[in-house]
Amino acid sequence: xxxxxxxxxxxxxxxxxxxxxxxxxxxxxxxxxxxxxxxxxxxxxxxxxxxxxxxxxxxxxxxxxxxxxxxxxxxxxxxxxxxxxxxxxxxxxxxxxxxxxxxxxxxxxxxxxxxxxxxxxxxxxxxxxxxxxxxxxxxxxxxx
Length: 144
Prior knowledge:
single chain; alpha+beta; 2 domains; three-stranded mixed β-sheet; 6 strands; 42% helix
């Protein structure tokens, strides 16, 4: 009998180590097949020096915010260098999203740029507290 399991995430750490992760849709340890797969994957990963984790699913608020931002992940939303610099200047200090977009002066273009920069980590916001809206405080991110 052939059995297979496909984890959803593989990542390399800066030090060269590796993470293999399952990202289930529901919390908990999963059914018998998922539990068996987790045990086997943990053993295999340990054997090659990797880390295996079964991650908890995101909260509904985080999931909704990430789905929204994913709509702005395409590079075309971040391509205008002049607009990008204006948005970064507007959010040099944390402020509500609507205030920063208004400060740029072209909201129909600045909004998508803000969402793209949030997606890419250049800007940051608390995605776990509440759905993104005009009052969400946005500031510089770790990728800035």
